[in-house]
Design brief:
With 93 residues, the protein is mainly α. It contains four helices and no strands.
């Protein structure tokens, strides 16, 4: 297996674990979106994204490292998707 294949496999496995958590506790999505909505009222700066990650880690069973440099690909993808969903909601109003 090449390095890129190993990386893809690792990311897929991490996403599978994350999706499993979401299916086991659907309130995680609701809580995460509420946190993102609250934090993104002032824009989607790196500091806002870090606050979102920290608050999600503090209030749900999802752990996202405090340091953005330590975020996995799945962490980054989840935060990015939260931001996109909130921005799309705001665009509707």
């Amino acid at each position: 297996m090449s390095g890129s294949e190993i990386q893809k496999t690792r990311v897929i496995n991490e996403l599978r674990g994350f999706i499993r958590k979401l299916l086991q506790d659907p309130k995680i999505l609701e809580q995460s979106l509420a946190i993102a909505r609250q934090q993104l009222t002032e824009g989607s700066s790196a500091a806002a994204m870090a606050r979102i990650a920290n608050e999600i880690s503090d209030t749900t069973s999802v752990h996202i490292p405090e340091d953005p440099a330590e975020h996995s690909e799945a962490d980054k993808l989840f935060l990015e998707l939260l931001r996109e969903v909130v921005q799309e909601e705001q665009a509707l109003y």
